[in-house]
Design brief:
Elements (H helix, E strand, L loop, with lengths): L2 H28 L19 H16 L18 H13 L7 H5 L4 H12 L11 H13 L10 H4 L32 H13 L7 H7 L2 H12 L7
Length: 242
């Protein structure tokens, strides 16, 4: 065999070996053998792998949030359709202690930066399944507050930060920073979210159990009836045209 033939076989062998290593690495991550970067979650989600994220979601998250992010337990948030940057930021905040949760704080500590990015990528690509509206009269009141505020200036329109039309500068439910162009790590999408969960978060912002420099005063200015109305409205929405 000539030198060219030997070089070809050598190159082919190296290529096959590298491909095999790549397959083993992906397989190991899927079975939990390789967790990616460890330690505290960084500031950016990076480019996640939704295929791997799907496997992690099914094994770690499905019990509360549903395998596709549309969990049926009303006390836990739906994750489907959220911006990947927002989902990653929540895992980061649970991991660092910036956001408190008896359940999520411990779970987030077991998720690597790579896995968090994969999860965020997967859930962000899943369609949201809205809940049926149980009280249309309340939803109509919530729609008015969400889109236009209360008319007196006491309550600003929720849509300024959370959707409807183009995105504008503002603060979202996290209350950690300004909202810029494109997906924001500070502002969740509320369409299709469980009303029970939305009410609970508004109550937490109102009484200080959840920090938010903007959402705290806004939630506190809403009456119990108004919080329930807004929650009822957003829970039945397919989209907010963001």
């Amino acid at each position: 065999m000539g030198k060219l033939g030997k070089r070809y076989l050598f190159g082919l062998g190296v290529g096959v070996l590298l491909a095999a290593i790549g397959m083993i690495t992906v397989g190991a991550r899927l079975t939990g053998g390789v967790s990616g970067a460890s330690g505290p979650l960084g500031d950016g989600a990076g480019a996640g792998n939704p295929v791997i994220g799907k496997h992690i979601a099914e094994t770690k998250c499905a019990a509360c949030h549903g395998a596709d992010g549309n969990g049926t337990a009303p006390q836990y948030p739906k994750l489907a359709g959220q911006d990947a940057a927002y989902l990653y930021a929540q895992l980061r905040d649970f991991n660092s202690g910036a956001r408190k949760s008896e359940i999520m704080s411990g779970i987030a500590g077991t998720i690597s930066r790579t896995d968090a990015a994969d999860l965020a990528s997967y859930y962000s690509q899943q369609p949201i399944h809205p809940d049926p509206v149980k009280n249309q009269a309340a939803a109509d009141i919530g729609k008015r507050i969400f889109l236009a505020g209360d008319g007196s200036g006491r309550v600003r329109p929720c849509a300024m930060c959370h959707g409807a039309g183009r995105q504008r500068p503002g603060m979202g439910m996290m209350g950690h920073g300004m909202m810029g162009p494109g997906p924001s790590s500070n502002v969740p999408r509320l369409n299709g979210q469980h009303a029970t969960y939305v009410i609970d978060q508004l109550n937490r912002f109102a009484d200080g159990r959840r920090s938010g420099t903007v959402m705290g005063p806004i939630a506190a200015s809403l009456s119990d009836t108004e919080r329930k109305a807004v929650a009822e409205y957003v829970s039945g929405l397919h989209a907010l045209n963001r």
